[in-house]
Amino acid sequence: MAISLGKAARDLRTRLKLSLRRAADELGISYVHLCKIENGRTSPSPETIEKFHETWGIDLYMYAVAFHSENREMPKALRAPARALADGWKRHIDLMLDQRTKEGEKSCLISAD
Fold first, then answer.
1. From the CA atom positions of the chain, what is the Rg in Å?
2. What does pTM read for this prediction?
């Protein structure tokens, strides 16, 4: 089963509504390095993959399996669990976005005082 970590990284960043520069800053890697990962010109190191988990609580490999693997290539017995995994990641991302929105609203209220 072929998966693309670069496509998964780009998809995750866009789902989180982050610019490439902001995502790179949050991950603690360079903008150029993240761009190369997303464009498939380099593979993320194990340390970089760990940064995705540390920063956003998301295992990039599992995210890639859930969203960027072809169902027809997946054994039939794994298709339903993969769908459940994708649904779980969607809920996790929605919660993160809600939390970011609330934090942004709080910081606006604090700076307005």
1. 16
2. 0.77
